[in-house]
């Protein structure tokens, strides 16, 4: 009988889609509240935290990631949170409700940090974001980071750039006091959202190959270097079709796909995971921000010859009512005219454009054809010349 | 000096983006209110309605289409309209305002007819749509036509299928009385929206090759069969990348692109028009409806071996608020697994999915890769498994 082993705690049991009993009916032995401590590749066994030894023919690692917490004094204080799992979210929600938070500081202006701004502002909590870097959403072009910053300001979220935390102590006006290289500030709650790292210790200890990214190395069939051992999801690498490198992109949709590919192969089917183009998005109040492919730096590092442009157009026809300003950035290879990357920011239509451009990146399309792609044009949905066309034509002139 | 010749009437002059004077400054002689009557291919001249003869080296035909009006008695009565040009729209608007319309009948349940329903209902005018065929938006799958019909009903628009007009006479309770094979009905205004046909007479008379569709035949550079004569826009054919046939798809975005290709070639550049995949969309009240590629019948006629599926999914993550039900139909070739066509209907996300699938059709992608395309997933914008993935996986099982 297949096992599922996880150190899922009691409170989380309801989060498992089906109960262990239900799983058992379908022939899967689900064991919760037990941790896999060590893999013995030669004996094909896993030593569990309850002292038992579980044998395997096929082993699937889906160990995910852990939120990074900087080793500074005070991160263990009440009111300091990370947000990685659903129990984390439940803890934060309970704290906000019970402690009557008036002010929050978010450390890190990435996806999680920025998305949490909206949740906190909805509760009318004063919100401040700090980051080591100079602007929010660093992955995006400075012009788009600026658009995001404007939206933060409109929503009364303050952003403090070039700021790193040095310690957290008890506060005076508020529960906590955050000390940084850029002054001190108080808040009732501090959320640390500075990224995640793959949980690869089991794999490292077992002597499995680890990629340059620190995540578990896999092949197109999700097989690790260990016989009969697969890895899927945030703990392993994924092939990037544009950079042609194996990278670590811990995102839920990729994890879903890898799980399916591994399952099909384990079940006797044959399938390869075709890879990703690095598509991602997040919502920040009224703005959508999305990106796919690689930026100029990644392009140079991969051996491409990048050239880029940023244009501002309308997501829908100019004659239609509503806010429609949409920014698109394209990066292409000067040598071939091939699209390498795309970014978009706007109140409407940003993610949709990036999904279309993801398909273009997937197929290695050149700007010449992207500039004339056939879209389902209708004024409520797009201008006759879509911002994608305009951006591609603009960039062709720079090749 | 290049000419622009058009039988644009005085009222329309303001519709020309720049005045004739402004054009002249940039070296273009714009002559309005004059019609091109005849082309002499050998002498390379055009006879105009003002009796003059205009010589040319290069001639571009952009004669567009004309709305089809059935030859039945009464179509010339006041209150009977077509909607093809902006002056048509202005005439309809003035009539509705001045005559206090309470009831309207739309003949034809295609794009124009259905889009006009919303405009008329916004003015609180009783609106009825009749069509010769059995359902609105015939191009879409019966399941989606049904969704559109439900929306029409919700918006208090009645649809009468299998109904053709036989004549229009003066009415009793309302200004007009429409007689059909399916009974008689009265209204204050009748809009005839049963399609368009290409204005190819000039080209036919000049002996230019005309395509099977009745539109002017062109090549990838927008050249007709006549030396130095180009054609662009709704009057000419376009290459369909999926059916691999030259077809007539009179849509504004295609016209824009063809004009640009012709202009580049005429101006000494070299460029080919890469064709279309038949992408189109329209909005019907709260619904977006979009399609690209070909349906089962067109696929069979082109020599493919079609197999199809219709699925209903969510445009955004299930946990997000708001109406999100989205239907997607995919048609693929059983022999190769290649995507041949796609349709979508929903309150949100339909057009966007079709734009992405247009890019997939453009590249001749197979279902195996479409089922794993990398999108910019985030719950406010899509589920982790997008309806596109689900539809593709569903259809793979039918191959």
- Unreliable parts of chain A: none
Q: Termini distance of chain A?
A: 59 Å
Silhouette of chain A: globular
Total beta-strand segments of chain A = 24
State the CATH superfamily name of the largest domain in chain A: FAD/NAD(P)-binding domain
What's the oligomerization state? homodimer
| Count of alpha and pi helical runs of chain A | 10
Count interface residues per chain for the largest interface. Answer: A-B, 46 and 46 residues
Widest beta sheet: strand line-up of chain A: 8-15-9-10-11
Helix fraction of chain A? 10-25%
Structural class of chain A: alpha/beta
Tell me about this structure.
Two copies of one chain form a homodimer. With 399 residues, chain A is an alpha/beta fold. Chain A has three domains: 3-63 and 197-266, FAD/NAD(P)-binding domain, CATH 3.50.50; 80-192, FAD/NAD(P)-binding domain, CATH 3.50.50; 280-396, Enolase-like, domain 1 (2-Layer Sandwich), CATH 3.30.390. The first copy, chain A, is built from ten helices and 24 strands. The first copy, chain A, has helices at residues 20-25, 86-98, 111-122, 142-154, 201-205, 252-266, 296-302, 350-362, 367-370, 387-396; strands at 3-5, 29-31, 36-40, 45-48, 53-55, 59-61, 65-67, 80-81, 103-107, 126-130, 157-160, 165-170, 176-180, 183-187, 189-192, 196-198, 229-231, 238-240, 245-247, 280-284, 287-293, 306-314, 325-333, 339-346. The first copy, chain A, has a five-stranded parallel β-sheet. The first copy, chain A, has a five-stranded antiparallel β-sheet with strand order 20-21-24-23-22, sandwiched between helices. In chain A, a hairpin with a 5-residue loop joins strand 23 (325-333) and strand 24 (339-346). Chain A is globular, with a radius of gyration of 23 Å. The model of chain A has no long low-confidence stretch (mean pLDDT 94). At the A-B interface, helix 6, strand 20, strand 21 and helix 8 of A face helix 6, strand 20, strand 21 and helix 8 of B.
